[in-house]
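Box 4.2: Ligand-aware structure prediction
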Amino acid sequence: MTSVLVAGGASGIGRAAVRGFRARGDSVLVADLDLARAQEVAAEDLPGPAAALGVDLSTPSGPAAAVAAAVEHGGSLDVVFGNAGLLRAAPLAEWTVEDWDRTMALNLRAPFLLAQAAAPHLRRSPLARLIFTSSTGALRGHAGMPAYHASKAGLNNLVRALADELSPDGVRVNTVCPGWVDTPFNDAFWQHQDDPAAALDALTASIPLRRQAVPEDIVGLVLFLASPASDYITGQSLVIDGGYTAV
Ligand SMILES: NC(=O)c1ccc[n+]([C@@H]2O[C@H](COP(=O)([O-])OP(=O)(O)OC[C@H]3O[C@@H](n4cnc5c(N)ncnc54)[C@H](O)[C@@H]3O)[C@@H](O)[C@H]2O)c1
């Protein structure tokens, strides 16, 4: 049975991915800051076995604790989906060093530490996947969110370095780059807009598919990257955005 760690799996894209992995029979460890919601997700009636862990992935020890729990739950580790992220939006003058470091600790350092802790286990796996949630925010920039854009761009280059080191041993390392996904995650961005309703209308009009994604839209790509069908893909960042960055 494929053993999967979903880091940041209690809400949004992570929760939808947990459901997708479990629906195909995988064993999943749902690691999240919000233990109660992670437990709810793990308790859903789906084929693959699941367990929950409450963990702060932005701490130096959190990612390794999540990997250890996934190995204990699944008996091995084949797939890490590192998905937790943080979005702070504020005018440039209001940013503190602590704000900057908080974003980097979760969005960029946690994927690095997940990879470091998982690598010995993945090297023994016949599937062996590291998948991280980046963003189209890695490819462009919006006012008020300097750390978010810098961290996601860094993540896309982190997977190149990790692929160079780990892929000779069979580990595929990639990011998915969603465009706009309708989850609580973007609340900070909308609150930063002068007229949130008008901003949402303008955004929707700028997306060729004329809507934000729902979390389930992202899951097919994640499952593809966590399957043998993607055996020849590594070191890549795959955009899934309804055409947002195409125009
Ligand atoms: N929503 C979007 O429009 C969008 C677009 C592109 C990329 N993303 C990325 O997708 C990922 C998931 O976002 P989402 O939209 O599903 O958000 P969400 O808020 O629905 O879910 C995020 C999850 O991460 C968990 N989390 C937050 N901080 C954590 C920490 N320190 N330790 C452990 N868990 C923590 C939360 O508890 C939550 O369960 C993020 O990396 C985000 O950058 C989101």
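In the box above, the bound molecule is nicotinamide-adenine-dinucleotide. Residues 8, 10-14, 32-34, 55-58, 83-86, 106, 133, 135, 178, 180-181, 183-186, 215 surround nicotinamide-adenine-dinucleotide (CB under 6 Å).
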